[in-house]
Structures are given as structure tokens and as C-alpha cells.
Amino acid sequence: MKTAILILAAGNSRRMGTPKQLLKHGDTTMLGQVINNSLKSRASSVHVVLGAHANLIRPNLPKNISVIINKEFEKGLSSSIIKGVTELQHYDSVIIALGDQPLVTSNYFNELIELCIKKPNKIIASKYEKHNGVPAIFPSQFYSELLNLKGDTGAKSLLNSNYQLVQVIETPVNLFDVDTPHDYELLNKN
């Protein structure tokens, strides 16, 4: 099974006030950590969707990943998903991940892939306190639903609408995403 990881990192970091994709985390950046964890997984390839600040971010990315530019990033997360999935339709499945979740491990990506192999007719989503979310893996039969998403909620509506199609994975992995300077402080305390 060929699986691509699609990392969404096109936003303009309005709440952070600076491009959060370039904020330091460990010996790399937050986005760099997500990419490194993705590259260590069993995924066939790693792709990053950039939009705002693409010219600043792209030179800091490893050469062994694919960069997809979303010029319509201001239309929200859905536009990045559509742009990425359009280019990755030849894969059997796509994991959608966020560039501001540096604590998601390669082992977690592997768990998603393994569960998708066992349940190929299900979307495998991450369990949050009050909803399902990403990282999530979508088998190819769900690409048409992803290509019809609208707005800035990404795949949340799809992940929380039809529970017969969605399998939830409970995880000890920290799914914390970094949106504000306070979030970044909390991340660095860990």
C-alpha cells in the first residue's frame, strides 16, 4: 500500500504574529520536526503544502520531500487539502497532518498506516477530547469527499459526520497544536 503524508503548513500564522513554521523546536523548527517524524515513518513519501511565507519557509525544508504551493491558502485549510490531494490521487491512501503538531511521532503515523491496511474501507482519525481530527488517514475511495471540502475547518466535518465510515484511534501521543505565543511557550516547557 502506497501512503503519502500531506503536511498542511500554508497558513499565515495570524495568531502567532510570525511564521510559526520557522519557530525553533529542538534542533530544528516545528515544521522541521513534523517533517522529520514523517520521514522516519513507513509512508512512501512526504509532501508539504506551503502558502503564506512560502519563499521564507521553502529554503529551510529538506530536499527529499515534495513541496506543493497553495496560492489560495487564504481560503482556509480545505484549500490546502484540495491542492494536496489533487496531486496525490495516485496513492492508495493519504495521511493529513498539521505542520504545527511537532509532538506527533513516526510511530503514530505507522499506527495509522497499519490500521488502514487492516480496515481499508475506513477513515482512521485521531481522537480528541470533544471531536475527531487529524492526523488522519484517508483511503483513496474518500478522495472525492476531500476534494469537495470548503472553508477553514479542513476535514473536521468529514471526520465527525458519518461514524460508520470513521474508525477512531486513541493515542498516548500528544496531539497539541501550536497556534499562539502562549501555546509555543507551553511546547517549549515539555
TrEMBL record:
Record InterPro entries: MobA-like_NTP_Trfase, Nucleotide-diphossugar_trans
Species for this entry: Winogradskyella vincentii
SUPFAM superfamilies the UniProt entry points to: Nucleotide-diphospho-sugar transferases (SSF53448)
Record CDD domains: GT_2_like_f
Protein name: Nucleotidyltransferase family protein
One matching Pfam family: NTP_transf_3
Span of domain MobA-like NTP transferase: 6-161
PANTHER family tied to this protein: MOLYBDENUM COFACTOR CYTIDYLYLTRANSFERASE
